[in-house]
Request: fold
Amino acid sequence: MRVHPTADIGPFAVQERRVRRMSSCVRLLMVLGAVLTGLAACERRPSGTTDDGTGDILVGVYASLTGDGASFGQSSREGTELAVDEINAAGGLLGGRQIRLLVEDNQSRPEEASNAVTKLITQDHVVAVLGEVASRRTLAAAPVAQRYQVPMITPASTNARVTEVGDYIFRVCFIDPFQGEVLAKFAYNDLKARRAAVLKDIQQDYSVGLTESVVSHFTALGGQVSEPVSYSSGDPDFRAVLTQIRAQKPDVIFATGYYTEAAVIVRQARELGMEMPILGGDGWVGDALSNGREALRNTFISNHYSGDNPSPVVQHFVAAYRDRFKKAPDSIAALAYDSVKVLADALTRAGTTNGAAVRDALASSNVTGVTGQLTMNAQRNVSKPAVIQEVTYADGQAKFVYRTTIDPD
Amino acid sequence: METLLQQIINGLSLGAIYALIALGYTMVYGVLRLINFAHGDVYMLGAFAGYFLANALGLDGHPSVFWAILVTIGAMAICAAIGVVIERFAYKPVRHHPRLTALITAIGVSLLLEYGGQVVFGATPRFFPQMIESRTYALGGVQITNQNLLIIVVAVIVMFGLEYIVHRTRIGKAMRATSYNLSVAKLMGINTDRVIAFTFALGSALAAAGGVLVALAIPRIDPLMGLMTGLKAFVAAVLGGIGSIPGAMVGGVLIGLMETGLSATAYSTYRDAVAFGVLILILIVRPSGIFGSSVVEKV
Reply:
């Protein structure tokens, strides 16, 4: 500690004076805080009141355009834009009003997801919010939409708790309790697996929820599951945990995390001489999965839709997407496309952008989407069949090949 | 038994990565008494330099050992230059200030590289091209890939190489003299600025080599990859005795084995906590580390 020779009072005296000054500061801050809280409480009104019924309809999108989940963000944005452009080209909604998208990047971080939605609602005054894909980020942002009573539709967050946040939160995908059942059934009935091991990403609500469901369903079918092994998003090396799994000699491995880690997991598993089937959920749908390369042999995923489906709705979407983005759409893009169609349908039926009215309309949605019939149930979820796809690797790309469809009970 | 052996191999592979980075920490500390927290980020820059070079040369899918070596040397040269620039503009201006100033500057440089990296390269993880063909050797149920073997071999070579440079060459003598007493070394006619620049160039080149090698074995790279790995390597350097070259090697391998051992239990998610717990323990019980003695054993 250096002491200033010019100081004519002791450090304690200085401190005391500072404390006194600070306490008056604190008091002022407290008063200010109280006033602001009061103001904020007044601000808490349904956003529909800010919409004067003319001009563009503002719809907010928050997505992981960069970071670990960038593929999710890009796909969902593309699917969303495609649907919005189709609606606008067909004359818009509510008497010719166009939909205008406001897109916010959350860098694949939950805290940014919540900030993005706060901004979209309080500053941009959007009438509805679309997003996110990863359950963890949707769970972080949903309470904001609920608080301001702005309807939110998540295209692809499958964790069961997402729509439990409140009555303004909807989704257009199936939920993990069902997805886990599908994976467990496929492993047990089709792959004839009896012993299974599970790798879960402890940081992701999606992975934790899916793991729970897979384990309970596989056990219920009569299979054996060893204690799930955990890792954290961003871990670069899985050799140690995989070696531990290898010692248990499972017939099948469930890797319930997201695509970036899945690519490394399959590679390192094959390097360790583990050739058993590896199964994942829809979280594997991302461009970086291709980095699993040849190691992707003998891997399967559960997914929301298959582009091979001959239904005209699906084929129209696949052709339009291909035409615009020069690539095949993945299931995230398809779900995002569906989320816009569901919102548009609800806005039309509500005849207004008022938050409560749109919410009521959403609750009774029944739309034929690309990913199936989207009928909203009382829990604001939709019940749809899932497809099982085999992952193959060719020409530097991972491809999903349709295997079977599994219906909900 | 098979599992135990495999875990030991896994631990050695991981430990060799930490050792490779810890060697750079220890060398800079040995000469300057500065913990260069940006070292882990130079390692990240090395991996990215290798990534861009390899893609520019179109190596993805066309494995070639010759080009892989060339890419590694290129990445090392780029990072050596970056290391010298960092030293010149960040550390040299504060060299005669209290040590804490330099330490905080180092943390600043580290943050600059991490978040600057996110701006320049984007936060999305990339996958390193396969520059050399991946082969797995199996010995009675124990698997090791050629890339991991390479990391272990290179780490050992680098350790002996550094020992040789520091103790057997003229520049090494100058480094030791600078470490012993900077002003006296200057009086004796040693160009200490050049010695320090050389130390940074060498340390950064090693970090770059580590970055490329690790990216070959674990292909996922992102701008924050140096953060955790760098901190673990720092723990390894302290555990081995910071300033000691064999200490860095031993510390790295110990941390690697420990992490792997822990991953094999039900407590796999406590890995990081244990690594840093070791740091705290070492600083309390034996701050000079395993190989460090309280007598000044300087590089």
